[in-house]
């Protein structure tokens, strides 16, 4: 599925570049909406709807994976033990969800949405970089430790 998603994103960018001028791309607040206005005509109202649905899908995946990452990290002793608890009837990591919701409420205290996007993107990129660096460091310094997940 990863090559398919990559292909779709590349084709979308090629379509944007084929239809819009560089000046329109620079001036646009939302390139997909400008593209939709140009290509879809009277159906251009569907483009913001599709962008919102895509963002909602990404948000739901982020919520599900982030709470489970906190849960597993707590199980391995990297986070506080209280985050390792789980709701027995629903099998959801409720303390992790509450913790992430509290972090989200703290982030909402900013009045500048662009600063929030910049800071959250920076933090997420930092943690991804640290995770990849940790994997590479372990591969180099401890090549013989057992690894539960292997790629070929």
From TrEMBL:
Give compartment(s): Membrane
List, alphabetically, the Gene3D superfamilies matched: Amino acid/polyamine transporter I
Per its UniProt record, what InterPro entries does this chain match? AA/rel_permease1, AminoAcid_Transporter
Q: What is its main location?
A: membrane
State any single GO MF term: L-amino acid transmembrane transporter activity
Keyword Transmembrane on this protein?
Answer: yes
Q: Where are the transmembrane segments?
A: 6-27, 39-59, 113-138
Membrane topology listed for this record: Multi-pass membrane protein
Alphabetized UniProt keyword annotations: Membrane, Transmembrane, Transmembrane helix
Q: What Pfam families is this protein classified in?
A: AA_permease_2
Superkingdom of source? Eukaryota
GO CC terms in record = membrane
What is the name listed in the Swiss-Prot or TrEMBL entry for this protein?
Amino acid permease/ SLC12A domain-containing protein
Q: Which organism is it from?
A: Cuerna arida
Q: Output the lineage of the source organism.
A: Eukaryota, Metazoa, Ecdysozoa, Arthropoda, Hexapoda
């Amino acid at each position: 599925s990863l090559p398919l998603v990559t292909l779709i994103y590349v084709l979308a960018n090629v379509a944007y570049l084929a239809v819009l001028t560089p000046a329109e791309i620079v001036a646009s607040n939302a390139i997909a909406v400008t593209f939709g206005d140009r290509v879809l005509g009277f159906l251009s109202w569907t483009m913001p709807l599709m962008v919102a649905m895509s963002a909602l899908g990404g948000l739901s995946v982020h919520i599900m994976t982030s709470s489970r990452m906190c849960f597993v990290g707590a199980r391995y002793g990297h986070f506080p033990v209280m985050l390792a608890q789980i709701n027995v009837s629903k099998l959801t990591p409720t303390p992790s969800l509450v913790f992430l919701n509290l972090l989200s409420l703290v982030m909402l205290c900013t009045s500048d949405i662009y600063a929030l996007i910049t800071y959250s993107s920076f933090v997420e990129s930092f943690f991804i970089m640290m995770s990849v660096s940790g994997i590479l460091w372990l591969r180099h310094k401890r090549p013989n430790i057992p690894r539960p997940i292997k790629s070929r």
